[in-house]
Amino acid sequence: MKFIKKNHDNTKYIDGVFAVSNAAKADNSPNRVNVSAGCLLDDNGTIITYKSVYDSQATIENNKRASYCEGPQGNKKYNEAIEKFLLEDKVKGKAIATFGGTGAISLAMDMCLQEGDTVLYPEISWINYSLIAKELNLNAITYDVYDVNALLEKFEQQERIFVIINSPCENPTGHSYTYEDWQKIINKLNELNKETIILNDIAYIDYAYDENKKRYFELFNNIGDNILVLMAYSCSKTFSYYGQRLGALVCINNDEEFIETFMNQCAKHCRCIWSNVNNSAMINIADVIDNHLEEFKNELSQNIQMVRRRADVFIKECSECYLHIYPYREGFFITIKIDDNNYRDEVHKRLLENHIYCVKVNKGIRVGICAASEEALKGLARRIKECK
Predict the structure, then answer these.
(1) Whole-angstrom distance between the N-terminal and C-terminal Cα of the chain?
(2) Burial readout 253-272 (b: 16 or more C-beta within 10 A, e: otherwise)
(3) What is the pLDDT of residues 37-92, one digit of tens each?
(4) Alpha-carbon distance 110 to 130, whole Å?
(5) How many CB atoms lie within 10 A of CB 319?
C-alpha cells in the first residue's frame, strides 16, 4: 500500500468489542442482554463511579485541569502514590505514568522488543496482545494458562524470554495463578538464567477476591539479575476511571542504576507517542490514595462482592444446563468454551440474532459479568446453550 511502511499489516481493522457494544446500545428489544462491556456497571446498566474518586476530582482547580503535567514520566506525586498503593511495601519498584493499562503494555513491548523478537502470551487472551504484537511485527507464541509446566517448557525453548502473564483476574477467563504457580515460574526463570522480561498485566488485580492477592509480589525480591519484572497497571479498572486513560508501568529489577536508565528511556518514548498524560487525573488519583484511601476501599469492597454474586449466579446456571466454561476464579469475565473458532463464529452470530451481546475471543465467547445485574444473568446460560 502506498505511503505506509511496507511491513505494515493492511488487514481491515474492525474492533470486535466496540462493534458489539455499539450494536447492543442500538437494540431496544426487551430480550436484550448486553454482556459485551469491560466496564463495571450497576444493575441499571450505568457505569459505576466512586464517590471518593469524583468528590476529590471536583476540588481540582480549572487551571490545574487545563495544565500539562510535570513531564512525559508523569507527576512525581502520582507515581509515588501508585508505588505505595500497588506494591504495599512487598517489593520495591519504580512507576511511570501511562495512557491506561493498554499504554503500559504497549510501552513495555515497544521498549523491550524489536521486529522479529518473540513474545509469549496466553492462548485465550485479551485481543490487544495479538494486535500490539502484529503492529510491532513480533513473533507470537501462545501458552495454556492452565498448564504451568507447559509454560516452563516454553521458557526452555526461548533464547530470550518475554512473557505476558495476565494474573490475577485474567481477561477473559477469570483465571489467576496461585502463589505456588508463581514460585514455579520464578524458580524456573532463575534456574535458566536467560535474559527475561515478565510483563505482569494486573489491570484487574484490585477486583480479585483473595485478600492476599498481592502476596506473590514478595517473590520478586528473589529474582535473579537476569530478570526484569514490568507491571502494567490500570486506573481505568481500579478506580472506574475508564475515559480518563490513566495507568502506570512499574519496573522491578535488582540493578537500581538500570532502573533509572530504563525509566528515562521510557519517558523519552512516551514523549514521542503521547507527550504526557492527564494532569488532573494524576492529581486526583494521588489525592484519593493519599487522603481518601479507606473511603475508597470500602466502596471497592462492596463492588467486589457484587461481581462475586453475579459470577455465582452465572456459573451455577452454566453447571445446571451443561454449558461448558473455562475454569473461573475471579474477575470481570467468564468465557464459554468453544474450541473450534469457526463454530464459535456461528454461535456468536446466533447470539446476536437472539439479542445476546457477548465478545468473541480465541476458542470461546466472553461474558462480561461486570456489565449485567444478577437478574439479567438469570436464565442467560440457558439462552446461550440454546444458541449452541
Answers:
(1) 40
(2) beeeeebeebbeebbebbee
(3) 899 999 999 999 999 999 999 999 999 999 999 999 999 999 999 999 999 999 99
(4) 13
(5) 12
297-306 LR contacts (CB < 8 Å, sep 24+): 299/50, 299/51, 299/52, 300/50, 300/206, 300/207, 300/238, 303/40, 303/48, 303/207, 304/207, 304/209
Q: What is the C-alpha separation between 331 and 217, in angstroms, rounded?
A: 19
C-alpha cell at 377: 444473568
Q: Who's near 1: CB < 8 A, 6+ residues apart?
A: 8, 10
Q: What is the pLDDT of residues 207-250, one digit of tens each?
A: 999 999 999 999 999 999 999 999 999 999 999 999 999 999 99
Decide: residue 350, CB within 10 A, 0-12 exposed, 13-18 middle, 19+ buried.
Answer: middle
Record the cell numbers describing residue 192, joined without a space. 535458566
Q: What is the DSSP string of 221-263?
A: GG--TTEEEEEEEEHHHHTT-GGG--EEEEEE-S-HHHHHHHH
Nearest 10 degrees: Cα torsion 40, 42, 48, 52: -120
Angstrom distance (rounded) from CA 377 to CA 33: 8
Only one residue has cell 453475579, namely 310
